[in-house]
Automatic annotation (TrEMBL):
Transmembrane segments: none annotated. PPR repeats lie at residues 60-94. The keyword Transferase does not apply. One of its GO terms (biological process) is RNA modification. Keywords: Repeat. It comes from Brassica carinata. GO terms for molecular function: RNA binding. InterPro entries: PPR_At4g14850-like_plant (IPR046960), PPR_rpt (IPR002885), TPR-like_helical_dom_sf (IPR011990). This is Pentatricopeptide repeat-containing protein.
């Protein structure tokens, strides 16, 4: 059975970013993933940042830190703490934003 192609559909940013891990030519996907997570968080598109974060297979400390920071920057401290606790890398620092005043 072949792939059905819809001729009038155009991919959005999320579609393109979500297909990046499947492209063998992109050996540095972790770097692209990190940059995308950071960009989406800074733009307030947290749901897109989460989708990219979840698609990165071998997350490094920068990826974990970008996502934790994104949650904090967008006022989602409980999610930031939870993700920090789940982090497999131990070089991530959690800053209590209450102390930054």
């Amino acid at each position: 059975m072949g792939i059905h192609i819809e001729r009038n559909l155009k991919p959005d940013e999320s579609t393109i970013v979500s297909t990046l891990p499947d492209c063998p030519a992109l050996k540095n996907f972790v770097k692209i993933g990190n940059a995308s997570v950071d960009m989406f968080c800074k733009c307030g598109c947290l749901y897109k940042a989460i989708a990219v974060f979840n698609s990165v297979r071998n997350k490094n400390v920068k990826c974990w830190t970008s996502m934790v920071t994104g949650y904090v920057s967008n006022g989602r401290l409980d999610e930031a703490r939870e993700l920090f606790e789940r982090s497999r890398v131990k070089d991530v620092s959690f800053v209590d934003t209450g102390q930054l005043r």
